[in-house]
Amino acid sequence: MIIEDNVINEIEINKSKFITYIYKVKTLKEINEYLEKLKKDYKDATHICYAYKIDNTIKFNDDNEPVGTAGIPILEVLNKNNLNYVACFVIRYFGGIKLGSGGLIRAYSNSTSECLKKTKIKKLEKLFKIKLTISYQENKLLEKIIKNENIKEKDYQENITYILTINQNIKEKIDKLKINYKILDDNYF
What we know:
- This protein has helices spanning 28-41, 71-80, 100-116, 136-146, 168-176; strands spanning 2-3, 7-13, 16-24, 47-54, 57-61, 86-93, 121-122, 127-134, 150-156, 160-167, 181-188.
- Strand 4 and strand 5 form a beta hairpin.
- The protein has 2 domains: 2-122, Ribosomal Protein S5, domain 2; 127-188, Alpha-Beta Plaits, CATH 3.30.70.2030.
- The strands form 3 sheets. Strands 2-3-6-4-5 form a 5-stranded antiparallel β-sheet, with helices on both faces. Strands 9-10-8-11 form a 4-stranded antiparallel β-sheet.
- Helix 2 (71-80) packs across helix 3.
- The longest helix is centred in the middle third of the chain and has 17 residues, at 100-116.
- The chain has 5 helices and 11 strands, in the order βββαββαβαββαββαβ.
- By secondary structure, it is α+β, with helices and mostly antiparallel strands.
């Protein structure tokens, strides 16, 4: 499963402010960029805790909260929703009242859960962004297959060049037609 949109939410628990960001991500580089931006934007925050999952790459960080009270609860919410290609950051401003281990676990879990309510969760479908060039004669066959697909660009010259996103099913149909194409991105959703 994957989130449809990046979202932000803020809650207050016993005078501590929890600002949660959840992002759809493809790479570790993206995650690091988000983290650096949040550290810059919230340099006065007490903690910036997070968890992320990209396929089998999973990481969480408590950012000096007691061990197991922030990153793991965030990750557990992501796992309960079967999410992938997702990063969740929770920024905490300490409000002066200690929450204790149980309170912190609930606070980070609730922050993540509340933020997730602001986006739709949908089935993850891997798409391929491809480029292909075909003759005008072949185009009729191709258009029957891709009529409902997401055509990004279409250029009419001596031949027709398409840039489009296709799912695995459409890719197999194009392969059967023996139409040559170049995969521009195979980690596209």
